[in-house]
Amino acid sequence: MSDRYYVPRVAVGVIRPVDYGILFAPRYNRNRIVDGDASQRESPHDADHFRGRAQDFCDLHGSSRFTLHIIDNGLNASTQEGDANTAEARRRQVLDILDGYSGPLLRVVSFVCHGYRNGVQLGFSIRNASERAATDELLDLLATKCRGDIVMPLYACSTGSSAPGESEGEGGFADYIRDGLCSRGLTYCRVDGHTEVADAVSCPHVRRFEGDGGSSAGDGGQWVVDPASELFASWRRALRETDMKYRFPLMKAAAIRAELETAS
Q1: Which of 173, 73, 169, 51 is nearest to 117 (CA)?
Q2: Where are the alpha helices (DSSP H) in 62-187?
Q3: 242, 186, 228: which is closest to 209 by C-alpha?
Q4: What is the pTM of this model?
Q5: What DSSP string describes 51-77?
Q6: Do 12 and 57 form a contact (C-beta atoms < 8 A)?
Q7: The predicted structure's pLDDT at residue 75
Q8: Residues 154-171: what's their mean pLDDT?
Q9: Contact 147/178 with Cβ under 8 angstroms?
Q10: Which residues contact 50 (CB under 8 A, 6 or more apart)?
Q11: Smallest Cα–Cα separation from 150: which of 182, 206, 108, 95?
Q12: What is the pLDDT of residue 6?
């Protein structure tokens, strides 16, 4: 088995591998062309909505190992060439950054942005064959840059939702990403996605899509904390009031529940 895809069992006295990560967030809350008219610019709160939270994640886990990249989704058309207000321009920035990465294999790659059942604001979606091909390009690149136990927190609304007629997230964007990572050899991957429209990092309705060591596609995902669980109120509070919102993607579900039980 290739070292790239081997997930070691950690015994007492064995040092765990150090985690490295890249996060992506948009420069502006909404995709737009900023035309120089100050009245059309977004407020500082809007501009900082996603990137501030992404930076908090990096700071918590170690800013020397976790890097935030801001994706320009609103180039000033009066002073710069090009138009970042297209899906192709946004995803090309992401792909170029990943392609140029030459550090240790990544454990975390995260999108902190608007999301939809079929995709994310930064240009990747599965709405049609052409869009799926572009998303496959991302998956191909991740297979060369990431560890086999890659964690992909999609801090993006609705990405953990189900396709029409499906359930448990089957057929949605997060499900597609998990299946694609597994088929490319990252068989211990973990992808978290929200199932509704809410705050980017404190939404408690989160489904987890994991690889089980095999290359075949999985069937949907599981709640990180089931909304019907007695722990759901504690989970909601922890995401809203503590740094759990940035820690849980790297925690196993059992460890999350154990911490919530202790805090209850």
Answers
A1: 173
A2: 87-100, 129-145, 173-183
A3: 186
A4: 0.87
A5: HHHHHHHHHHH-TTTEEEEEE-S---T
A6: no
A7: 54
A8: 95
A9: no
A10: 25, 26, 29, 112, 113, 155, 200
A11: 108
A12: 41
